[in-house]
Amino acid sequence: MLLRVGERVGRVEPRRHMRDYVRGLLGPVGRKNSWQIAEHAGHGSPYGLQRLLSWCQWEPDEIRDDLREYVAERLGQPDGVVIVDDTGFLKKGTVSAGVQRQYSGTAGRTENCQIGVFAAYASDKGRALVDRELYLPKSWTEDPDRCRAARIPTDGDTSTWAQATGQYRWISQVDPGAQRSVNLITLLKPDDKFAAQFHVDSSADGSSWYTVARHGGSAGGLIAVQLDHPTKARYLRVIVHRPDQ
């Protein structure tokens, strides 16, 4: 893989720095910063790695494309899946790109952090990350000067993933284990999640479904939903969609 993407950075010296940087990220390095990785690689200073990251001319998206091709060649399967999830990186201060006080699933609470959204490919042959994106809160997207100071392009699409793709819909199904009478359900939705409408369907046998409640939308927290009428059900589905659908 390093031989394939090495062409993206040109000269021999940055290729070697790229190799050492990747090995450091994958190796037993406590803090994955340029100082610690340079020490792990046996460099006398971190300046070579810093030049690679800050000044050497290469296109991250081109390397991402190389990686995806590499993964597809070696791990590709007809039933392979792409998994999308975010992770938080705790930070101090306010100058790191995208940082603000926001909910971090990694920490399990609201912290000063960056949020990265990652896509991974998984099949029976293995798994690998294939894409990434830094989440930019409104405190950044609505402040062009702050973005420029952090070298963030200000002309991109600032839609959330759900808004941009239109894939703002999901289904959660619950099986209580036996048919029982239900007249109220309680949902717990993280406070950081976007507002969404949903309706509740019930089924006695898993084949015929009936809508038994609708909810107009909530930004998060504990939600109690009264069903339209008491119903006997073995299965319940919560079907969530964006408010304008």
Question: How is this structure best described in words?
Answer:
The chain folds into three domains: 1-58, no CATH class; 78-158, no CATH class; 169-241, Jelly Rolls. The protein is of the alpha+beta class and 245 residues long. The mean pLDDT is 86. Strands 1, 2, 3 and 4 form a four-stranded antiparallel β-sheet that branches. The chain is elongated and about 70 Å long. It has eight helices and ten strands. A hairpin with a 2-residue loop joins strand 3 (109-123) and strand 4 (126-135).
Q: Termini distance?
A: 43 Å
Succession of helices and strands? HHHHHEEEEHHHEEEEEE
Question: Which regions contain 5 or more consecutive residues with pLDDT less than 50?
Answer: none
The description of the largest β-sheet is: 4 strands, antiparallel
Task: List the domain count as a whole number.
Answer: 3
What fraction strand?
35-45%
Mean pLDDT value: 86
| E-strand count | 10
Give Rg in angstroms. Answer: 23 Å
Fraction of residues in helices? 25-40%
* Structural class estimated from helices and strands: alpha+beta
* Shape estimate: elongated
Report the total helices: 8
Structure summarized in a few sentences:
The protein has 245 residues and is α+β, with helices and mostly antiparallel strands.
Topology:
Blueprint: H1 2-6, H2 12-26, H3 34-41, H4 47-54, H5 60-75, E1 81-90, E2 100-104, E3 109-123, E4 126-135, H6 138-141, H7 144-149, H8 161-165, E5 169-174, E6 180-189, E7 196-203, E8 210-218, E9 221-233, E10 235-241
